[in-house]
Amino acid sequence: MQLPDLDLLQTFLTVAEHQSISQAAQTLELTQPAVTKKIKRLEESLQVPVIDRNARPLQLTEAGMILRDRAPGLLSDARKLASDIRSMSKSGLPLLRIGMSDTLSEILGAEFVGGMQSYAHVVELKSSISPWLETAFRARHFDLAVDSPPFVDTQQIDTKLLFRDPFVVVVPTPLAEKPLEEILRTENYVGYGRSTKFGTSCTQLLAQLGVDRPTRFNFDSTQSLLRFVQAGYGWAITTAFCLLQSPTALKDVSAMRCPNSEPREFYLLNRKGEHEELAAAAAQRFSTVFNQLVDGPWVQIAPRTARMIAEANVDLRPAQSVEPLDE
Hints:
The protein is of the alpha/beta class. The protein folds into 3 domains: 6-91, Winged helix-like DNA-binding domain superfamily/Winged helix DNA-binding domain (Arc Repressor Mutant, subunit A, Orthogonal Bundle); 95-165 and 264-303, Periplasmic binding protein-like II (D-Maltodextrin-Binding Protein, domain 2, 3-Layer(aba) Sandwich), CATH 3.40.190; 167-257, D-Maltodextrin-Binding Protein, domain 2 (3-Layer(aba) Sandwich). The protein is built from 13 helices and 12 strands. It starts with 5 loop residues before the first helix and ends in a 15-residue tail after the last helix. Residues 88-92 and 321-327 have low confidence and may be disordered.
C-alpha cells in the first residue's frame, strides 16, 4: 500500500463533507468525472474502498470514516512542513525562543545559546521564575522551555529530563561545626517567598526537617538570601545550582546536602508535534554544556557543590567515577 497523494486526500475530504460528488466537484471547480477518477485513484493507493457505491445517498465505508477522521491532521502537518521549509529557504533556520529560570540562565544560559547558533537563525533567551515560565510557554511566548515539576498538564507537552539540582542546607561558616540538628532547632531560618514553585518546595522541606519555628526573614532572590546567611543572620535551604549564582557568598558559608530531600528536576518542554528536532538538539546541547561545566568551571568555583551536582546526576552523565562526599 502506498501513501495517498495529498491532493487525493483533499478531494476525498471535500466529497465526505458534502456527501455528494457533484457538490464536491462544484466546490473544487472540477468535473464530476474528474472527482470520481481521483476517488478511484485514492482507493487504488489504499487498496480499500472508501465510498460505498451501493448506498444512496453517498455514504463512507468503515475505512472511509477512519480516513475522514485522520486525513485533516495529515494535511495540516504537510502544509506546516511545506511552510517551514519555504521559510527556512528564504531566511535561514527559524527563530528559536526558549524560556528558563533565572538560575539556569545565569549559570549556563550563555553557553547554551552560543551552541544553538547552528540550529537557529536567531536564539532568543528569556528568563524568569515559575509558575510564570510554564504559563508563558503554554501561551506560546516560547518554542521551548526548561522548568521544574509539578506541571499543570502534560497531555499536550513532551518532557525530557535534563538534569537534577540537589537541595542543600546553607549555614554561616562560624556555625558549620555545630550539629545540624542543633542549628535547625536554635538558629533563625532565612527563606524564599512562597509565590514560586521553588519557594513552595523549600517550605515543604522545612516541614520535613521538623522545623516548626516561624520564618524570620524571606527573600525573593538567592543573592539576597545568601548574603543574609553570609552575614550570620540564620540558615537557609536552597540548591546547588543557586549557590553557583553567588560564588562570592560561598567563601563565608558552608553547604551540606539537605536531609530527607530529593533533588529538583529540570525538564525540557516542547509542544507535541512541534519543534521536535530542535528540542532534541537543544536537549543534547544542554547535556553537553552541563557536563562541561560540572567537570570544569564549576569545580574551580565550588568543588564541593560541583561534586554534589555530579552525584545527583550520575545516571545522566557519561560513565565515570564520582567520589562520594564526606558528610
